Every structure is written in C-alpha cells, then in structure tokens.
Amino acid sequence: MEAALQEKLKGLMASKLSREMRLYLDTCARCGICIEACHAYASMPETRYTAVARAETIRRLFRRYFKAEGRLLPGLGETIELDDAALEKVHETAYTCTGCRRCMTYCPFGIDTQMIQGIAKLLLIGADREPKLLTMLADMSIAKGETIRDTKGAFEQAVRNLEAEVIEKWRGEAGREAIPVGVKGADVLYVALAGKHSIIPAAAIMNAAGEKWSLSYFEAVNFGAFVGNPEKTREISRRIIDEATELGVREVAICECGTAYRVMKHQTGRHPFEVISFVDLMERYLRDGRIRVDRAKLDGSRVTYHDPCQMARNGGVIEEPRRVLRELAGDFVEMRPNRGENWCCGGGGGLVAMGEKDFRMKSARVKAEQVRATGATVLATACENCHTQLSDLNEHYGMGVRVAFLSQLVADALVQA
Amino acid sequence: MADHEAVKVLDLKGLPCPMPVVKMSQEIGSVKVGEVIEVHTTDPGSLSDFPAWAKSSGNQVLESQQDGGVIRIFVKRLK
C-alpha cells in the first residue's frame, strides 16, 4: 500500500475516534459473552463470526497507530499494519456483520460493534474497496435530489395509476385523491419505497383514518448508511428533510424500512417536525378509533412477529406492532427471544441489496428455527429488508409461513364505515 | 411515442426495493455501448429512480411509458 493512501486511511480512522469509540476500542475484556449473541455464529460457529473477532482487526489498527505503545513498539503489542491484507480482513468483517447490534445488548460494557464496523466501512470507502453496488445506490438517491424536478410529473402519473388499487381497499370520499402528493400544509408526509406495495396499503390506511397526508417524492431507504458514508447519508436524508420543511408537515412517517426509520429518527438531529414510523401511526389510529379492523380476516391463522433490529432494538418501536397485531389476530404468538433480544433476520447491513444469498441463508439458520418453533402460519414484520430476507429463508428452509408486512395485514382487514 | 429498439427486455415487475435498479445496473454491462435495454416495472419510484441512476452512472433514459400499472423504461448504454 502506498504511503499516501495509508496516511489518508489513518486520517479517516482518526475522524471516527470519538470518546465513545475510543472507549469501545480500549475496553473489551475478551470475556466472550458476545460470542453466542451473533446469529451468524449461532448458525455457523466459526470464530470469525464473533463480535469480538470482528472488532479485533480495527482494535489492532487502533493500537498500532493511535496508542503510544503501538506507535513506539509496534512489534510488542497486538498490532497489525494498515496494508492490503488488513483491508481484506476489514472487508470480510464489515460485510458479514448485519449491524444488528445484538452483541451490544449482551456485552457487559455495551460495546457497539456496529459503530466499530463504521470505521471498517469508512476505511474501505477511502481505499475505494467498498461494495460498489451500495455506493451506486447511494449516488442514485443523491442524484434524485436534482433530477426529481424533471421526473415529478411522471411519478405523479404513476401514483394516479395506483389509486384504483387503493380504493379497492378503502373507498374514500368522492373527489378526494387516494394518493395525494405535494400537499402543502399536510399533517403527515409519508415516505415510502419505490414499490407500490409500500404505497397502496399505507394510503388505504391513512385515507380510512381521515388523515391529511402527502406522499413523498423520495424513497425512504438510505444506502449512504448501508455503505457507511456519513456525507452521503446526510445528503440523502436532507432531501426528505427539505421536502417536509417546505410542505410544513407536523410529522414525517417512515414506511416499513428499518434503516430508513433509524437514520431519520435517531441520526439526523432535530427538525421542525416529528419523525415517526408508519407502525406508530397505525397503532395510534387503532387506539384512537380512527380505523377499525376485522379480526375474522386472520381467523385460522397463527401470527408471529419478527422485530426488525433497526426498528426494535435500535429504534425503540417495540410494543406498538404488538398492539396492532393483538387488534388483528386472535392467535398471536411471540417468537423467542423477542423484542430487543430478537435474532436478526440476517439480511441487514446491505447484504440483501448485495445479493450474498448463500451467506444470508447459512448465517440465518437460527432465525428459521426460531420461526418454525412458533408454529405460526403468518410471519409479520415491518421492514422491507427483513421481509425480503424472511421470504428467502421461507423458501430456503421450507418454513411454510406467509411473510407479510404489518401494513398489508391492517389494510386487508380495514372495516369500511 | 416512438418505441425504441431494445436488444434486451428486463421484467422487473414486483421486485422488492432496491432490486429493479440493482438488476439494471448489473445488466447494463451486458449490452454494447449505444444499445438499449427495455425495463418493465410496477414501481412508481422507478420513474424517478432510473433517471437518477442514469445521471449518476453516465447512461441515458430515452423514454418512459405508462400503460395502466405497467411502466416501460428505455435505457441506452452510453459508456
């Protein structure tokens, strides 16, 4: 590795060494409690899939270049040089970790492995070795901030073409748009994904609740976060923040996408509006009696719920989906463990977008067993990434469930007044 | 609306996020510079995603057509 590149990477690493990060890098006592917390290790018991091993490459680089003993006597301590071999190791650790942070909940010091992997991902970006697919998707989102001026009309037409499917689920007031877009003064800006499955059920539910809402022109997902690029993450979020501010909405409701919710809710600072998940909104409508659902729709079905890591453990949306499901289903059972201790589905951290199907299936064997043990026939979740991964697991392991978004179950059970 | 002569048709209807753009980016290298791929999708977001992807990747969306719920996008490889 050229000296100039090594210096650049050391600079990038230094930019991540906050007080918390230094604490995480200094503190590990190698107690090993985190080892069995990782779904990948639980499914494939190899040392490289433990949280402590994943963090070790970064720890050794930290000791080598940012601790006095490593700088002065690098041969004596547990250090490694920042070279091509180290970057290969960094790549493996960063992209076999889904960033679910389950290990953190078991660590007696609360060491955040995902945060440590943030260094790994930044080093890969600096060395131009990050997964190009994720950068391409992030760049597309950023470019959309400019090209949207030219494509708004076509998007609006496409949305109008979906309105009949919304009305099939909920007949709204005559003359009222089933999918409003660009509504100044709306109370809620709903940020969906590109697909209609992310728009139609939510539209029906908000119309049933009599909500004054508007659909965002942008997609909720943030690939800047997946690839670990802080600048791109900010730029992608900025598009939605600007749109919400311009419309003057009170709330921004993020669709069923865990990373999108966590980034917008917890990592973009304060705004003149509240950020909520669409699960929060559905729960509120049910609690306030603004929508009603027909439990008979799920008669004969045993329903369980997969907590998306970025929604539950890392986002705090834990009891709301359960309250929604108890309204919907007579036979709702928890998978165990659940809530903040739930097993990751194995598809996070960009793995679903990147493909990686062989690793995703093998590393999530424990998830399939956990679902199967519930005896459920319907597996509900509230995250696009999880939905895709769980659908793949369903096929791969023959789980025999119907994987469904919460919004889809609610929309299908709406009771027309 | 003029149809464009596509050398390849990609049926991306109903794929989860972000697969339509992922598939497109994987397939663009399979055609020659100057050739056109026709994409079929049902995602409203594709109408803004594909032009944004084309801008950031140095390709060109020649035209988008909507026929009910099916969206046809013609993408020309430029480099």
TrEMBL record, chain A:
<dbReference type="Pfam" id="PF02754">
    <property type="entry name" value="CCG"/>
</dbReference>
<dbReference type="InterPro" id="IPR004017">
    <property type="entry name" value="Cys_rich_dom"/>
</dbReference>
<feature type="domain" description="4Fe-4S ferredoxin-type">
    <location>
        <begin position="88"/>
        <end position="118"/>
    </location>
</feature>
<keyword id="KW-0411">Iron-sulfur</keyword>
<dbReference type="GO" id="GO:0051539">
    <property type="term" value="F:4 iron, 4 sulfur cluster binding"/>
</dbReference>
<dbReference type="Pfam" id="PF13183">
    <property type="entry name" value="Fer4_8"/>
</dbReference>
<keyword id="KW-0813">Transport</keyword>
<protein>
    <submittedName>
        <fullName>(Fe-S)-binding protein</fullName>
    </submittedName>
</protein>
<keyword id="KW-0249">Electron transport</keyword>
<dbReference type="InterPro" id="IPR009051">
    <property type="entry name" value="Helical_ferredxn"/>
</dbReference>
<keyword id="KW-0479">Metal-binding</keyword>
<dbReference type="InterPro" id="IPR017900">
    <property type="entry name" value="4Fe4S_Fe_S_CS"/>
</dbReference>
<dbReference type="GO" id="GO:0046872">
    <property type="term" value="F:metal ion binding"/>
</dbReference>
<keyword id="KW-0408">Iron</keyword>
<feature type="domain" description="4Fe-4S ferredoxin-type">
    <location>
        <begin position="19"/>
        <end position="48"/>
    </location>
</feature>
<dbReference type="InterPro" id="IPR017896">
    <property type="entry name" value="4Fe4S_Fe-S-bd"/>
</dbReference>
<keyword id="KW-0004">4Fe-4S</keyword>
<dbReference type="GO" id="GO:0016491">
    <property type="term" value="F:oxidoreductase activity"/>
</dbReference>
From TrEMBL, chain B:
<dbReference type="InterPro" id="IPR001455">
    <property type="entry name" value="TusA-like"/>
</dbReference>
<dbReference type="InterPro" id="IPR036868">
    <property type="entry name" value="TusA-like_sf"/>
</dbReference>
<dbReference type="Pfam" id="PF01206">
    <property type="entry name" value="TusA"/>
</dbReference>
<comment type="similarity">
    <text>Belongs to the sulfur carrier protein TusA family.</text>
</comment>
<protein>
    <submittedName>
        <fullName>Sulfurtransferase TusA family protein</fullName>
    </submittedName>
</protein>
<feature type="domain" description="UPF0033">
    <location>
        <begin position="10"/>
        <end position="34"/>
    </location>
</feature>
